[in-house]
Amino acid sequence: MNRILITGGAGFIGSAVVRHIINDTQNAVLNVDALTYAGNEASLDSIVTSSRYTLLQANICDKAAMFKAFSEFQPTAVMHLAAESHVDRSIDGPDEFIQTNIVGTYALLEAAREYWVTLKDEAKAAFRFHHISTDEVYGDLEGTEDLFLETTPYAPSSPYSASKASSDHLVRAWHRTYGLPVVITNCSNNYGPYHFPEKLIPHVILNALDAKALPIYGDGLQIRDWLYVEDHARALYQVVTTGEVGETYNIGGHNEKTNIDVVRTICGLLEELAPAEAKAKLTAAGKKQFEDLITFVKDRPGHDARYAIDASKIELTLGWTPEESFESGIRKTVEWYLMNPEWWQSVLSGDYRLERLG
């Protein structure tokens, strides 16, 4: 049985990884999460009673807490997902992104290195530090048909993507300089159940159900590659258990869509699936269909026009491919939000109220 220390395991992607490991493997998990606004313990209700799962509420910037976590849990691998991750929030307030994504990654690397050097040879060779990053570090593919490769030069555009690029460089430096056995993954846009409502897809679903405006940046023609979060969780586990030390793997869903097409797809599904109450609100707002709620707003500063991942390396070397098409995944996502109002209503009762940020 492996013992996997996961940072950010109460977040959107992290909770999917934790659920996958507890439900589909025999491994044990220590979830290290600061439980900030985006961390939600309710996302782990289905596995929280497992004897193989432990939650440690701690900030990765706290070196002493990280050293103690490694010493007591004795992990065979680390999956580092803890991060500030919203571009708009990074524009409004970069400081938390610098602290968590750069300083926090440094603190975690040092805790991992101090622990790793104490291991016996076999355990030392088997240990892995898996850093989970984003395709946004590569910048913008505007005006080309190119795809992001693992060798694409970094050109981050936002404080968020710059902070993630910095953390990627730290991880590679700790591998080259100290020999820490690392793997890095860079993923495309995730979507699916338990997604925090400030992100595009859940934001649109929940605003539409309440007959509120659906704000679209600029002309809505920005292109993203969409990856169903449970497909991503499987890929991450595949990488941490079978990936080659020192390698980077791009993870994408093979689903390039413009933002406006994503929103229109959601509106079409809601025409079919939304409850009578939501349609009554729509009528009361003077709208005939959910698409009538679409409102174009001023574009985000420095907004990248296109991201697209070449995920052939992970397919060819590790055998991973996504199971969900965008059509199947987005239907599952809309259905989940319709069937689980208690989850998102509890989120909305906190500090966040579906306002547009940035």
Q: How many helical elements?
A: 13
The total count of strands amounts to: 12
- SSE ordering: EHEEHEHHHEHEEHEEHEEHHEHHH
Unreliable residue stretches: none
The whole-number mean of residue pLDDT values reads: 95
What is the molecular shape?
globular
Distance between the termini: 44 Å
Largest sheet: 7 strands, parallel
**Helices and strands: which structural class?**
alpha/beta
Task: Tell me roughly what share of residues is in helical segments.
Answer: 40-55%
Side-by-side strand order of the widest sheet: 3-2-1-4-5-6-10
Q: Radius of gyration over alpha carbons?
A: 20 Å
- Into which percentage range does the β-strand content fall? 15-25%
Account of the 3D structure:
This protein is of the alpha/beta class and 358 residues long. It has helices at residues 12-24, 63-73, 87-92, 95-116, 121-126, 159-178, 200-209, 229-242, 259-273, 276-284, 312-318, 326-339, 341-348, and strands at 3-7, 28-33, 53-57, 77-80, 128-134, 182-187, 189-191, 214-217, 223-228, 248-251, 256-258, 294-297. The strands form three sheets. It has a seven-stranded parallel β-sheet with strand order 3-2-1-4-5-6-10, with helices on both faces. A three-stranded mixed β-sheet has the order 7-9-11. α2 (63-73) runs parallel beside α4 and α7 (200-209) packs parallel to α9. The longest helix is centred in the first third of the chain and has 22 residues, at 95-116. 44% of the residues are buried. The model has no long low-confidence stretch (mean pLDDT 95).
